[in-house]
Please model this.
Amino acid sequence: MARNFNLYRYRMPFSRKGETNTRHTHEVREGLIVSLEDGDTRGQGEIAPLPRLSVETLIEAEQQALDLLSQWQARRAIEPTLERAAPSVAFGLSAALSELTGALPETCQKRSATLMDCADIAAFIENLQRSDAREKAPVVKIKVGRDAPDTEARAVLTLMTALPWVKVRLDANRAWTLNEALDFARHLNARTDSSIAFIEEPCQTPALSLRFAQETGIKIAWDEHVREADFHPNDAKTSLVAAWVIKPSLTGSIARCRALTDQARQHRIDAVISSSYESSLGLTQLMRLAAWLSPETLPGLDTGHVFQTCIARGMPDDPRAIIPLSSLEKIA
Ligand SMILES: [Mg+2]
Model:
């Protein structure tokens, strides 16, 4: 049976400014959608390197994807090559192949930690108190490291005091010196271990973040570090580490992500499947990946609302318009 592929490019504006870890903002999001046909079966995937966080550019990803897709069409096994491909290419192509073979289960994890920064806290508290929505948002993820540590600590403390049932994940993206991180912890007072699940990468280096965890008793999570060459899953200090944040578009193939979630489970560490501003197509696949690979941990997938439209597929309970693949720019 004949194999065929199409590759599309999308460009869509952020409706709310997409703010990434590096504090730079992007006006538009660009990425690729790959569509595979093998006889009667179909599979789609999204290849969307994130500027400044991905090692590969969109142009490089496109070249690599085209090369791998021609090999796939010629019936060569590309799975081994995917493990050496750029992360966004490896994720997008492995997702499309997994749909084709039925390996990626359909069940979606529709819930996510609610993403916010300190400036959103007051409105969040008001909303939740009004709607009596205890069930709706048991976990929040707050970006910190953007303002003075004591100011941010006070904002976080306000949330923990007003909504004591809410579990708080914090993410400092390596913004703090050890002293600044300790200052933040000091201003949280005694409320720390009751509500705080973890702080992602509080300090500039993993070694300093571990010292922070040792000194404060607040658990940390690895995000950037999971993708570094010197990341050692078997590191002995895991009692200080509560979670690994796994972002498939920045990490690689589904097989690679699965190996990481398996290792995390062995070490009793939570694996938080997280998004990197993918379109609704990639994001719904991440919801399926979260339900499959890490069902016991609420994922970090609260990024869909930054776009006005969906691409190719809608999201659960989401009224936004869906742009079909036929309306996108076709590259191959
Ligand atoms: Mg992070």
Residues 58-73 form the longest helix (16 residues). The domain at 3-102+321-330 is CATH 3.30.390.10 (Enolase-like; domain 1). Residues 21, 171, 173, 200, 223, 245 surround magnesium ion (CB under 6 Å).
